[in-house]
Design a protein that fits this description.
The structure holds two protein chains of two kinds. Chain A has 15 helices and two strands. A two-stranded antiparallel sheet of chain A has the order 1-2. The longest helix of chain A is centred in the first third of the chain and has 35 residues, at about 10-45. Chain A has a domain at about 60-125 and about 190-295: MetI-like fold. By secondary structure, chain A is mainly alpha-helical. By secondary structure, chain B is mostly helical. Chain B has two domains: about 1-55; about 85-330, MetI-like fold, CATH 1.10.3720. The two termini of chain B are about 55 Å apart. Classes of the chains: A mainly alpha, B mainly alpha. The interface between A and B is large, with 95 and 95 residues.
């Protein structure tokens, strides 16, 4: 006798039970993300005024976008500056974090300690603490005192480096880039905590047998890095590039300007349209980068 | 027997001698030593760069004001003192703010982790038409900069009214600005700070846990939620710990959302941004035209920052060893 099919099979039931788990998140997504997103788009096309009872909206078409792009004297410049900064910083951050991860993945005394120190920026580099760092009196005093003690300033040191690079015949732009990188080393190191973490985890998951086999075949450490480590870790490079881009943009000048336009000069519509232009620029950039990198990415499975 | 071992020993010494007399042996030895040297220099150098600001703050915090104008004192103060700490805790109502922040961050951490664990588990197990799209939404929440939805979020909390339910009971929507409710609501519904990232981490982690384990539990008569709490959660501890730390720390340090919602300096991050002004106010005697020394002010401010981050560092020391393990198993990697 064939049993009548009652309801769902066990697997189907399990599948639909999964929906219950997502429900809180989904409610949040609809209420606290999707609705504001649509509203923000609406505000960007209108003039928003706060009053006692709430707020009033008047549609103004593309005026806000026109204002942001052609009238506002700072916006376009800050936007291009933040994009440019990101283009300069992200490769440095990714290369540095890969390098640091390779170092930290080797076996040596004090590895646990140095790992702990390298991941420290994960908790310290975010938010206000980083913003207070700059322009502090006392720290400036100590810095200049220690520079006097060592007899030369940081400026002079990087000039030396530039001279050395020039005399060895390196291209002018590359020299500029490298010298800039050396000067911003603190910024780069502190913003690569999470990236190092991801890379270290990735390096540990590469099976040792690959290295053994290549060693038996006579590969040097250098070769095995480029032929094994690099391809195996390439999906993570994509992840890290995207993470760095987003992370870098969150603290950029443009976001500050968007915030100030809204809550200091109370031009909500303008601020919303700025935010949307910004978002569009980021997504185009991310899309291009993801396209370019994902072609080269090697997936082991 | 004895001669046998002696012979073997001599053989070994000869062998060692033969090896050491070769040039290539020394070349490799030198190369590896050189590498160890370079590596040590690099690692200690970078560690110094990372620790430098913290070291500076520690040095400044324990310094007595007398040492400020002593040219011979750069790093190690001559007069150690705890007065700076005392002053900060008086001027900024530090214990109260610390308690507020710890409570808020703790609650947010708990709610956020709970919601993200559930969502991550759900995303790793469901598979129907459109589930991919739904997960795409998670990625989308990571990509959209929070500033894009800043104004509507602010207005939403200012006139809080979900689907008109609130106005059924009260005549007008309630104002949640300057309360802790927005933090609780957004974290409980999984839309807090960087929540998309947490959902992603959990989803990848759960995908690595074999389905057979759940099936075995189901066969043994455990329900779906029972399986989740008894089988899945204990296995996911490394990821849970990591996410908890991230969530706690990011809430603690966050100045964007906190600055948006809270007007008063009730928690650590908003206190930090106004610390300088508050200290100045505290040090200036009422009615007097006396201005405190800017160097002294800066010293106090550094002490305040150090006090604000010290709980995080202590916490970090305990949790840090779970970091790599959970990231590795999270499959974020594969």
């Amino acid at each position: 006798m064939k049993l009548p099919k009652l309801g769902l099979t066990l697997h189907q039931k399990q599948k639909y039970k999964g929906v219950w788990f997502i429900l809180p998140w989904f409610a949040g997504f609809l209420l606290l993300f999707f609705t504001p997103l649509i509203n923000s788009l609406r505000y960007s096309f209108s003039k928003l005024e706060l009053n006692e009872t709430g707020f009033s909206i008047q549609s103004v078409g593309w005026a806000n976008y026109r204002n942001a792009l052609f009238v506002d004297e700072h916006y376009v410049r800050t936007l291009t500056e933040s994009m440019l900064n990101m283009v300069i910083n992200v490769p440095l951050i990714v290369i540095f974090s890969l390098f640091a991860a390779v170092l930290l993945n080797q076996k040596f005394k004090g590895r646990a300690l140095s790992r702990a120190i390298f991941f420290l920026p994960v908790i310290l580099a975010s938010g206000v603490i980083a913003s207070i760092e700059n322009g502090d009196y006392m720290q400036g005093v100590i810095k200049s005192a220690s520079q006097q003690a060592s007899g030369e300033s940081a400026m002079f040191q990087s000039l030396e480096l530039a001279k050395l690079l020039y005399s060895s015949g390196v291209n002018h732009h590359i020299v500029q880039y490298l010298v800039g990188a050396v000067e911003r080393i603190y910024q780069i190191v502190t913003s690569s905590g999470v990236q190092i973490l991801i890379f270290v985890a990735g390096l540990q998951s590469i099976s040792g047998s690959l290295y053994e086999a290549s060693k038996i075949e006579g590969a040097t450490a250098y070769e095995s890095f480029w032929k094994i480590t690099f391809p195996m870790i390439s999906p993570l490079i994509l992840t890290n590039v995207i993470y760095s881009i987003i992370d870098n943009l969150l603290g950029s000048q443009t976001t500050k300007q968007i915030q100030e336009t809204a809550f200091k000069s109370f031009q909500f519509g303008l601020s919303a349209s700025m935010a949307w232009i910004y978002f569009a620029a980021i997504s185009i950039f991310l899309w291009v980068v993801a396209m370019l990198i994902s072609k080269k990415v090697f997936y082991y499975d | 027997m004895k001669t046998g071992t002696e012979g073997a020993k001599r053989g070994f010494v000869d062998y060692l001698w033969e090896r050491m007399s070769k040039g290539s042996f020394w070349a490799t030895k030198l190369k590896s030593w050189l590498w160890v040297f370079i590596r040590t220099v690099l690692i200690s150098g970078i560690s110094f760069i990372i620790l430098y600001p913290i070291l500076i703050k520690v040095v400044i915090a324990f310094k007595d004001p007398i040492d400020l104008y002593d040219a011979t004192v750069v790093w190690i103060p001559k007069h150690f003192t705890l007065d700076n700490f005392k002053l900060v805790s008086d001027a900024l109502h530090f214990p109260k703010i610390m308690l507020n922040t710890a409570l808020l961050s703790g609650t947010v951490m708990f709610l956020q982790t709970l919601c993200c664990v559930l969502a991550g588990y759900g995303f790793s197990r469901i598979k129907f038409r459109g589930s991919g799209l739904l997960f795409g939404c998670v990625i989308f929440t990571i990509l959209v900069p929070p500033q894009t939805i800043m104004i509507p979020t602010y207005l939403q909390y200012k006139n809080f009214d979900v689907l008109g339910i609130v106005s059924l009971f009260t005549t007008q929507p309630i104002n949640l600005i300057n309360t802790y409710w927005p933090f609780l609501i957004s974290s409980a519904l999984g839309m807090g700070l960087k929540t998309g990232l947490f959902v992603y981490i959990f989803r990848q982690f759960f995908r690595g846990i074999p389905k057979e384990m759940e099936e075995a539990a189901l066969v043994d008569g455990s329900g779906t939620f029972g399986t989740f709490t008894k089988i899945i959660l204990p296995n996911a501890m490394p990821a849970v710990v990591t996410v908890m730390l991230f969530s706690f720390v990011w809430q603690w340090n966050d100045s964007y959302f906190t600055g948006l919602i809270l007007n008063d300096a009730k928690v650590m991050s908003s206190m930090m941004s106004t610390a300088a002004a508050q200290i100045l106010f505290f040090l200036t005697p009422p009615g007097g035209s006396f201005k405190p020394d800017p160097l002294y002010l800066s010293m106090i401010q550094n002490t305040a920052v150090l006090m604000a981050i010290s709980p995080l560092i202590v916490m970090y020391l305990f949790v840090q060893r779970h970091f790599v393990e959970s990231m590795e198993r999270s499959g974020l990697v594969g």
